[in-house]
Design goal:
alpha+beta; about 30% strand; 6-stranded mixed β-sheet
Length: about 120
Amino acid sequence: MIKRLEKNARLAEVVISNGHIYLAGQLADDISLDIASQTLQTFNNIDKYLKKAGSSKSDILSATIYLKDINKDYKIFNEQWDKWIDSNHPPARTCVEAKMYDPNVLVELTVIARLPE
């Protein structure tokens, strides 16, 4: 069975299947902010959608991080990441530089998590 949450004709923010949760790319609600603030808003959105799916950041298996400018923002992003992530249950992680759909977007994340047993 596949369950889709917060969906429209183009995408679902959350897809749940076979005990896994797949989040669409998450970003800040206010993309006029700096990298630290966009990162925090992005984490808040991830937390919100994982909670709707019945999970939490402790159950994240994999995270892919897209930064607009990895040379400029990697350190600041990691400072926020280290405060947010459950250090007892860190996920596999990839971080790349990417051209964003809007020049004001500084960070976007996709995550795969598990449903707790």
